[in-house]
């Protein structure tokens, strides 16, 4: 979804409303396409929030190019189940992007440990990517209120500026 640039409290509230109530029409993530769209449609420098789980492929170049013109803030949304599996036995999961279904035995400590290690590696890789191209990053978790993290993030940016 694209929300044109704007100013003021009403615009900020619109962005928050759109982010909270947006329902995608299709499946899959085209982060490189969204960043290219930003590059093509927005000529003036803006502060741009990219809200995603960032589980997309090959978006580094487009993010780096967009960050040269705009002040990009990557807001990653993380569900706790993306970082740890509960020990609940055999469960059926579905890949939200492809629709593919599969079974996982969560009672296996090995499976849970591998899942947590892989998730930690993905999050570390993502953080390293953002740092390497100088993109500010904010991680919002779905299991805790986001307001404290938002205030902390903006206070940090204010001190830095």
CATH fold call: Rossmann fold
Mean residue pLDDT: 89
Specify Rg, calculated over alpha carbons.
18 Å
**Major sheet: order of its strands?**
1-2-5
CATH class bucket: Alpha Beta
What does this structure look like?
This protein has 161 residues and is α/β, with parallel strands linked by helices. It has a single domain (9-84, 122-160), classed as Rossmann fold, CATH 3.40.50. It contains 5 helices and 5 strands, in the order ααβαβββαβα. The strands form 2 sheets. Strands 1-2-5 form a 3-stranded parallel β-sheet, sandwiched between helices. Strands 3-4 form a two-stranded antiparallel sheet.
Give a topology summary.
Blueprint: H1 9-21, H2 31-41, E1 47-52, H3 60-69, E2 71-78, E3 90-94, E4 101-105, H4 109-132, E5 136-141, H5 147-160
Parallel strand pairs: 1-2, 2-5
Antiparallel strand pairs: 3-4
Helix pairs in contact: 2-3
Main attributes of the structure:
globular; Rossmann fold; alpha/beta; 5 strands
Summarize the structure in short.
With 161 residues, the protein is an alpha/beta fold. Helix content is 45%, strand content 19%. The chain has a three-stranded parallel beta sheet, with helices on both faces.
